[in-house]
């Protein structure tokens, strides 16, 4: 059973057929996408040049009725119904959602002033310029409606006009263009929503006036959004605002990016976006979206923007975008690597890799950073711009500390190859690290997580550390670290002794300088001297602690030598006592026979203490150095 006919302003529909309510038999049938319109020739021929020519051709062929099939008609049957109503003299309503389609349909049917004054093409163009281009929301809706027929709309320059109007309104006060910014003031609901004629619209109030348009343009398709950003940039929009709009759009349409950064786009709605619908009916290709976003990214630096770029790189690894896109993202991140954080650098390895993290992209980023810093140094020498040189050195130190922390974080991965660790550590120049404590910590973690490494592999990995750049605390730990190769331990002990001698010499010089009479000084000089004494006393305490540790470590290695020396002295003393005194008159010998040991006098113990003082940690180091000289000659050269 057929559904009842639907009547709509002089036309009614039955299944896939539309009929006029005029009551006269139709003499022309127009077919669009399988829907047939049974109409009359006079209303159509008098206003549509395309149909008039078709009708003239059919008259020459003596055809009583004309059937036309309109291929690729803009807007389909719904828009043609509006055109038919206009031709029959019925009232038609032009809106922001249909005006672009109606204008293209009028241009398709050639409804110009040549056939009738105030024809549909003129009316739709006038409505577009007077109503649409002056209202922010209507411009967004018009752009959305043009996406299905974008190629035809481009020929009429309607898209460019909408984009120019939007960019102009975004750069100026939105309250001048029909957007109810006044309701940000007194007309607010208790919950903070915007009221429209006393009705809660659900739109949240924005705290930043420069961000009011981010949500609205996020409903556009990727292509239109890209063109709008380019138009805004050409008009002089600030890079900060462009970056904010791009970040908002990306977080809304790239779910992985929003989850990782803990933010979801599209939750705050404005009055304009309250009546908008998502862009196009098809799903946005995230790979194409990311590659398009990368092309319009501004040259901007900032902590949040750097984190956003690293998030894009993370998503790019998942979507397997082009190498050009990845390389561009790595270059952009490398230009501001000093602003990155450790957690944002931990990009998982999504490709066919056994390792947990993608170290290749981080290495590429570091190389771009080093290249950028070297270029800056070449164009801004320290003699001409000392401030730029200081800033560059500070950036190098920050990045070195960040990369050392990154290596320490990934060192526990059992599948991390030694070569990857070395290449990451050596990616930065030697001058970027004043201390190698971070590298030592990372190497210690790696040795602990990879106990199966061979001695040769450990030796090669240890070459990334300069023992002379280890702090006194790192030296104390390394000298007792059983996971380190013997060569490294010996080097650490050697340089630690050098540090100790230097520190002690400095303390002695400072004390000697204080004993000398000094002329009258100012109060500030006395304060500086006091601070130096406090610092010196701290160093003395550290040195004493280190000496105690060294004595405990060297005790086992020197014990044998001490026993041999003591036994020799006892034998010599026994021979001397036997020759000079009798056994009965020698209380010392008698005491040894009965198993007692007398306390030596100060004069007797002084030579022994001097002999024992020769067996210092330095002497033990020299003996160890001599015993391993044949094996480790190169490391000490």
From TrEMBL:
Its main location: membrane. PROSITE patterns: BTB, NPH3. It is found in: Endomembrane system. GO terms for cellular component: endomembrane system. Pathway: Protein modification; protein ubiquitination. SUPFAM superfamilies: POZ domain (SSF54695). Residues 26-96 form the BTB domain. InterPro entries: BTB/POZ_dom (IPR000210), NPH3/RPT2-like (IPR043454), NPH3_dom (IPR027356), SKP1/BTB/POZ_sf (IPR011333). The lineage of its organism: Eukaryota, Viridiplantae, Streptophyta, Embryophyta, Tracheophyta. This is Phototropic-responsive NPH3 family protein. Keywords: Ubl conjugation pathway. It is a peripheral membrane protein. It comes from the Eukaryota. Coiled coil: none annotated. Residues 211-499 form the NPH3 domain. Belongs to the NPH3 family.
């Amino acid at each position: 059973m057929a559904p009842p006919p639907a009547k709509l302003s002089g036309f009614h529909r039955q299944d896939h057929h539309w009929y006029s309510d005029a009551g006269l038999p139709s003499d022309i049938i127009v077919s669009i996408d399988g829907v047939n319109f049974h109409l009359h020739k006079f209303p159509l021929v008098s206003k549509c040049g395309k149909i008039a020519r078709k009708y003239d051709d059919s008259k020459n062929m003596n055809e009583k009725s004309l059937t036309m099939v309109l291929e690729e008609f803009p807007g389909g049957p719904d828009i043609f119904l509006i055109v038919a109503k206009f031709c029959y003299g019925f009232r038609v309503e032009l809106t922001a959602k249909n005006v672009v389609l109606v204008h293209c349909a009028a241009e398709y049917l050639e409804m110009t002033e040549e056939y009738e004054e105030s024809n549909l093409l003129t009316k739709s163009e006038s409505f577009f310029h007077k109503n649409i281009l002056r209202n922010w929301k209507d411009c967004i809706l018009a752009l959305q409606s043009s996406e299905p027929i974008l190629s035809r709309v481009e020929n009429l320059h309607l898209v460019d006009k909408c984009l120019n109007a939007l960019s102009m309104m975004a750069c100026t006060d939105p309250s001048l263009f029909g957007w109810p910014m006044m309701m940000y003031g007194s007309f607010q609901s208790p919950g903070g929503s915007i009221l429209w004629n006393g009705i809660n619209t659900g739109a949240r109030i924005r705290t930043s006036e420069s961000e009011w348009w981010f949500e609205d343009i996020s409903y556009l398709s990727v292509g239109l959004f890209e063109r709008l950003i380019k138009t805004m940039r050409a008009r002089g929009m600030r890079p900060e605002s462009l970056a904010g709009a791009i970040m908002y759009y990306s977080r809304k349409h790239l779910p992985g990016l929003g989850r990782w950064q803990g933010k979801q786009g599209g939750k705050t709605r404005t009055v304009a976006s309250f009546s908008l619908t998502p862009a196009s009916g098809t799903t946005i290709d995230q790979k194409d979206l990311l590659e398009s976003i990368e092309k319009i990214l501004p040259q901007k630096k900032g902590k949040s923007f750097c984190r956003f770029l690293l998030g894009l790189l993370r998503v790019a690894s998942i979507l397997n975008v082009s190498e050009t896109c990845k390389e561009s993202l790595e270059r952009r991140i490398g230009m501001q690597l000093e602003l990155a954080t450790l957690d944002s650098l931990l990009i998982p390895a999504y490709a066919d890799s056994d390792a947990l993290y993608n170290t290749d992209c981080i290495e590429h980023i570091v190389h771009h950073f080093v290249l950028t810093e070297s270029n800056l140094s070449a164009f801004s020498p320290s003699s001409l711009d000392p401030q730029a040189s200081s800033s560059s050195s500070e950036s190098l130190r920050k990045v070195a500390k960040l990369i050392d922390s990154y290596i320490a974080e990934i060192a526990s991965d059992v599948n991390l190859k030694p070569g990857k660790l070395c290449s990451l550590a050596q990616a930065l120049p030697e001058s970027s690290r004043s201390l190698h404590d971070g590298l030592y910590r990372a190497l210690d973690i790696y040795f602990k997580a990879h106990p199966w490494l061979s001695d040769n592999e450990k030796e090669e990995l240890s070459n990334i550390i300069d023992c002379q750049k280890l702090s006194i605390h790192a030296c104390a730990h390394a000298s007792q670290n059983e996971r380190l190769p013997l060569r490294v331990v010996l080097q650490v002990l050697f340089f630690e002794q050098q540090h100790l001698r230097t520190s002690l010499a400095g303390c002695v010089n400072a004390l000697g300088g204080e004993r000398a009479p000094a002329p009258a000084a100012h109060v500030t000089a006395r304060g500086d001297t006091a601070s130096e004494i406090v610092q010196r006393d701290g160093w003395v305490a550290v040195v004493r602690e280190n000496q105690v540790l060294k004595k405990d470590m060297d005790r086992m290695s020197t014990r044998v030598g001490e026993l041999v020396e003591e036994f020799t002295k006892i034998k010599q003393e026994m021979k001397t006592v036997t020759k000079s005194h009798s056994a009965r008159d020698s209380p010392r010998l008698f005491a040894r026979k009965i198993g007692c040991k007398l306390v030596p006098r100060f004069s007797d113990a002084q030579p022994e203490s001097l002999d024992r003082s020769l067996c210092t940690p330095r002497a033990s180091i020299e003996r160890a150095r001599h015993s391993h000289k044949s094996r480790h000659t190169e490391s000490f050269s």
